[in-house]
Write a structure and sequence with these properties.
Layout lengths: L10 H16 L3 H12 L4 E5 L12 H5 L5 H10 L2 E9 L1 H8 L14 E4 L5 E4 L15 H11 L17 H16 L11 H10 L8 H15 L7 H14 L1 E5 L3 E4 L1 H9 L3 H8 L6 H20 L3 H5 L3 H17 L5 H9 L20 H14 L4 H6 L2 E5 L3 H13 L3 H7 L16 E9 L4 E8 L19 H20 L4 H10 L3 H11 L8 H9 L11 E3 L2 E3 L15 H7 L2 H18 L13 H26 L4 H9 L6 H11 L5 H9 L8 H10 L7 H8 L3 H12 L5 H7 L1 H7 L9 H26 L22 H12 L3 E2 L2 E2 L1 E6 L7 E5 L5 E2 L3 H17 L19 E16 L3 E18 L3 E10 L10 H10 L1 H9 L26
Parallel strand pairs: 3-7, 9-13
Antiparallel strand pairs: 1-2, 2-15, 3-4, 5-6, 7-14, 8-9, 8-19, 10-11, 12-16, 14-15, 17-18, 18-19
Amino acid sequence: MSGTGIEQIGRPNFWTLLGCGLFVLMVNHQQLGSLLVWRAAANLKFKVEPGPSPTIRFPQAGPYDRRLGYTELPSLIQRLTERDFEVASQARQSPALMDFIDAGGYAVYHEKSQAGLVLKDRSGQTLEAAPYPSAAYRRFDEIPPILVDTLRFIEDRDLLDPGHPYRNPAIEWRRFAAAAAGRVGGVLDPSLKRGGASTLATQIEKYRHSPAGRTETVGEKMRQMATATARAYLDGPQTMSAQQQIITDYLDSTPLGSRPGYGEVIGFGDAMRAWFGVQFTEVNGLLRLRDASGASAERRAQVYKEALGLLIAQRRPSYYLNAGRKDLDRLADGYLRALAAASVIDPALRDAATKAALAFTPRPPAPATGSFVERKAVDAARTELMVALGLPEVYRLDRFDLSADVSFDAAAQRRVATFLERLKDPGQLAALGLVGDQLLGDADPREVAWSVVLYERGKDHNLVRIHADSLNQPFDINSGAKLILGSTAKLRTLATYLGIVDRQYRELSTASGPALRQVAATSDDPLRRWAATYLAGIAPDRRALQPTLDAAMQRTYSASPYEEFFTGGGTHVFHNFEHAEDSQRPTVQQAFEHSVNLAFVRLLRDVIRHYEVDAGAPGLAVTSADSAARNDLLRRFADREGSAYLDRFCSEYDGLSPDEALEQLAGRVRPTARRLVVMFRSVRPDGSVEQMKAFLAQHLRDLPPQATAEELHARYGPDRLSLSDRGYLAGVNPLELWVVAYLQHHPEATRAQVLAASSGERQQAYGWLFRTANSRQQDLRIRRLIEEDAFDHLLQDWKRQGYPFGRLVPSLATAIGSSGDRPDALAALMGIILNDGVRQSTTDLERVVLAASTPYQTEMIYRPEAPERVMSTEVAATLRRALAGVVASGTAARVRGIYVGSDGRPLPVGGKTGTGDNRFESFGPGHQLVEARPVDRTATFVFFLGDRLYGTVTAFVSGPQADRYHFTSALAVSLLRVLAPELQPLVETPANRSAAKPRIIALNGSDPEPGTGP
């Protein structure tokens, strides 16, 4: 709205002016009356100013306000605020406008007939714009005159009368008087027809803003009339342009029912398509024809009758769209005769249209859908926005009056998406050099899905620039699943290892030589022993963190595969990718550059041992069988494993009746009398002998005699045997026996309730474990529990690095990828490393504007909290050098020297490769492989380009066909190599914001100086 300020106008003045103006209009002094109403409406204005508005009124009801999201604005603003957005600017409603709303009116402004989600990229280019309704008249002069004249004939023949330019289009006084008389007469005689006083203007107010789009009371009708009047005079005392806008708005926004598979139908243009299957452009072209003949005349008559049908159907659209189609056809024929008699249409059109029948389409045309490949970035942004706003579905989001600035680079996104589509062609693959050893062989390239995601480091947060993959499905390879990404896990392992060395240095660097040698001689922690030994050999005044980290990178580990490792609750062996590595003893740096599996398995073993010792885990060899620490560990194991079993049994028996649960339990084992009796007596301890025999009869051919049955009934009562013994005799897990018994009497119990009720039973079920004769079994379980605790500590460190899952597989195989990961989570770690050890948030949403150009407009800007330091600058620098070594002389050498900066010089590039061959394997005695079922295969490269850009590239094949592919991470590296022409413009594009080092918050809440670490 224009204006130099928001003038103060009191409520009595406004309503006095409005009332006087309406009275003068009613007595037919239009010019004076319109001037008074305009003066009243002139102060119903708003303007947008920086910061949140101290007072603002939002709509409470109305289909239009709900559909466009206006009624939900307070909650939407709150949700965005909770996700680090802040109000940058907001509408200020004038006192007169707030007064008008408080008095019962609807907000007066130029409303939108079309709205919907709009997404714009980093440069302001539109990524997505899907207005709703999809077809609308933007200006009055776009409407075919015959459609305007037909609507005026049906609804308000005084509209657009050039002789009355000051007319109030919201009230037709004759119709209003008749409706008022009918209302009064209806009080005396309910059979009298009351009539309606609706004009097009008040109808628009009704179906847009009245609760449920209905007029239930006289007060609601007055509300509609007052608002429609104020809206008509918003721009001046003359209302001819307002009358034209009323016709335009009515055609664009009339609700016309709904159809399955299409949803709500809004507006004339969408309704022609949804009801009759006629495109908007064809409707307008035919209705503008003046001299049609032959087939064109017939088609024009058909479309005109259908258009007429929609104008008539507005009062009862659901009826006429479904059961009342024949009635609508007959009603249209009557209107055709009346229209011809009034010379609105000519007799030829009348006759041709009367012969035509309304041709309802059996099903509305399906909405146009683009390729998922082309829409990956858009869909990612829409999903992020939907989650941020707390909406249950994207359908609602797409209809909101909302625009968002996203961080994607639309040009680069299109280039990469188009490039990935080309990779389905074997000829293109060969030309690009992606076919060969460790790449794609002769397997079908169409089964390979490719993913490319690129991020840019910003001043206080990171930005998504490209989000593309070739999978023509909603599934997002980058962030949609848990994938086995192979040796990329070595990057996380190395980061944790260096972080431990960092902490050991800070703790030990000031100690004396003798004290350090004492630590080296007595500690059970291998990493602490090394740090103490290393520092003891350096004079105290020459000790420094960076040389210590460099020395840690030069430690060596055996790559021999000829060792069995007790991990994950059992004995495991591991293999290197290259057999030539089996006899090597590489340094940590070399093992990282060349991705040597066994060296990193042993490195992770040292890390896990560090956590075990750090947590005070007791040494098994010196812990006596009856020690409190040992018994405590056994109780913890029983509780933990028992809880896992209980969770499984709750799932298996969920929803079963008591009888069904008992039958399922009995079906677990080969039936014998003793097993079944133990089951029955445990599950139904109060059951009689006869009930037990009836149960046995369902499962046994030969029933025991009465005396034997009575003896069994007495012998195997739950009061005679422990839970553990009853489970053993029944041949099932004792906790399964207990769950079935508990659910007999608590069928509605939740899992939490079952868990809470079973604490004693979990210990009873593992009673055998506490017997000293089972000391070996105890040792195995204690070792397993201690290892699991250590992996929980490792998980916490990985989560600080951005690891996305709540559990790690407690196995040394985690060092080579068995715990899974996500490409976007690996990229988050790369962002931390590139940002000198500081984690800052990543977003693809930078700005959201709600209800633009309305009295509710709210602009929100992403303002993240202060970044957090998760590793020291020295650790980050060491990791960057290690990653650069992978490209310089390791597994990613194919991309060396490919990318150049804007100055033409080679760009610093680093990364980590990973190959995932995920399959379910079964082994027999002697580690013999019995079965291997392929699940998927992945090749991933997480990388950085210079000091600003980083990301991931991934190749992925899912399902049994993965067995036909033998590519390695070399394929992902090669993809980044051939993508250089598509990414180079982005590499050379200056960042939108400075990449200066941000203020950071350390883990302890302090603000450390660079280099001091967390």
